[in-house]
């Protein structure tokens, strides 16, 4: 356990008392390049989508096929817009964000530090590794001990040769089926978590069996499941009974694709991307079943078209639009505060 971190939350500007977190989005990206999520072919009626300008005329196509449009897949160069949107988030009652960009989708803690300094938003950076197909050969060839050592260093000394420290491990990327490298990374994550008492966040593969299989691997390796967030449940578990079964395993349950309102899901075209209304129904189900201390929420902005500058909902959509929808659908203010303040705070505090 890292004695100097115990009882604190570690942001890119240093440690803070957990009470300073305020309203916290637990899964966002401010600086990333998600080219690994790109789809190799455009739909046949749009042969030139990859070379179209990003303008109003094309926004409908880009929203429908966000991963076919290569320029959409990077937030690099968007820092001024992101900074404006972080200020807007703060003006509307937001306070903190977990920035989950890990190795494989171009993380940059220096940029996160600049953004935190310019906006006053607490940014908690993620250490670790994204999905197998995005990783460089060194990670495939590394031993588990080497991966543990890098993640521990990122949290205790500083990441990428800087003195800027991460405050969470993840998002740790997994595919379906889970690959050998991803299993090694999960086992290393559990070992690093045991040493540090730190929070962990997981990106599961796109299959309803994936979240439970990840939890099994982490638990077998000694990980603390009660301090682990399972992301992207929106597009992973669709059945309320199966969700109740998964909730019993004890992780935090995260719906983090709020703001995506296109049901066509380019990554897996026979799965429907739910609407915000459907996300809220699933959340209400787990709240009604006694899991109000386990739910966290976010937007997982990772493409240009979801920034306000490009006609998207931005990082403030939950505060501005989703919370009122929740209250109108029987979720209490106390439960909203748990999802946005108390649960993120408990998760992010080092033990
Ligand atoms: C950055 C990232 O991996 N987001 C999740 C996208 S997905 O379509 O829900 O897998």
TrEMBL record:
Metal-binding listed as a keyword: yes
Catalytic reaction(s) noted: N-propanoyltaurine + H2O = propanoate + taurine; N-acetyl-L-isoleucine + H2O = L-isoleucine + acetate; N-acetyl-L-leucine + H2O = L-leucine + acetate; N-acetyltaurine + H2O = taurine + acetate
CDD domains: PTE
Entry annotated with the keyword Hydrolase: yes
Family, similarity comment: Belongs to the metallo-dependent hydrolases superfamily. Phosphotriesterase family.
Required cofactor(s): a divalent metal cation
Coiled coil: none
Keywords carried by this UniProt record: Hydrolase, Metal-binding
Cofactor note: Binds 2 divalent metal cations per subunit.
Binding site for a divalent metal cation 1: 27, 29, 171, 300
InterPro entries documented for this protein: AryldialkylPase_Zn-BS, Metal_Hydrolase, Phosphotriesterase
PROSITE patterns listed in its UniProt record: PHOSPHOTRIESTERASE_1, PHOSPHOTRIESTERASE_2
Highest taxon in the source lineage: Eukaryota
Binding locations of a divalent metal cation 2: 171, 203, 232
Protein name as annotated: N-acetyltaurine hydrolase
Pfam families the UniProt entry points to: PTE
GO MF term set: hydrolase activity, acting on ester bonds; zinc ion binding
